[in-house]
Amino acid sequence: MEAIGHEGNGERPLLSFQVITDTHVTADPQHVHNRNLERALRDIAENAADSCGIMHVGDVTDHGFPEEYEELKRIWRQYEDRLPDARFATGNHDIALGIWEARLGRFLEATRMAGPYHDHRIEGHLFLFLGTEKGHELNCSLSEEQLKWLDAKLGEEAGSGRPAFVFLHQPLQDTVAGSRESQGWHGVEQDEELRGVLARHPHAIVFTGHTHWELEAPYAFYDGESRFPAMFNAASVGYLWTDDDEHKDGSQGYYVEVYPDRVQVRGRDFERGAWIEAAQFEVRMGEKIL
Domain containing 92 — which CATH number? Predict the structure, then answer.
């Protein structure tokens, strides 16, 4: 794995976007999570004028309360004239408490998403957002219908030479940082079935959240081990977690650039406003990961 140089060669990407997750917005405007989201959005507004979207991988709020969604809207309005459109996946913190239908409805109203899972065609590329269809406290449950939908959607891109981007809050077990068996932060109830779908579509690139594991840790990137697509842990905007199983103050995410032959995934420290040297990755299309 080689770090990507930051100077570039003048080549412009086909499209670019940002991946953030686990913002855990609270009702308190001065809470560190809320201030971290403001900082992340400001970073994107100042550095990603050509971005086609912000992709949020869930745990948008800390409890899914109405006042937290109001605070989310307040923060976003500060930068909305300089930000691209945002798309959202559900996280367990958004939908776990209370009546499932009501919690999901509140999430969909606030984020303007079409359902617990949804797709978007952006500048010719496919973006697929998966999500639980039950209100689990930690895990997610994907219906057979959703898995068939994912398989069909990814099949539409087979042979196109284009990557398809998949977003799901919980990672598969023993893939990215935090999901190793000893770490315990995975939780897809249909883990085996989802693996079966993804194994048929090596052109997919998967982004997950949930673990908060810092991007400097091993396995921020999982290369699929010749069996599965590339997968990325997207850390957290709200706060981080370490391999010592400890909380760490901080705020991280990804800037992603798509080129005709590759996808560059660049870790960003929103707190420092700097690139994370240990988290600069490249996925070559039609090849294994470099």
Answer: 3.60.21.10
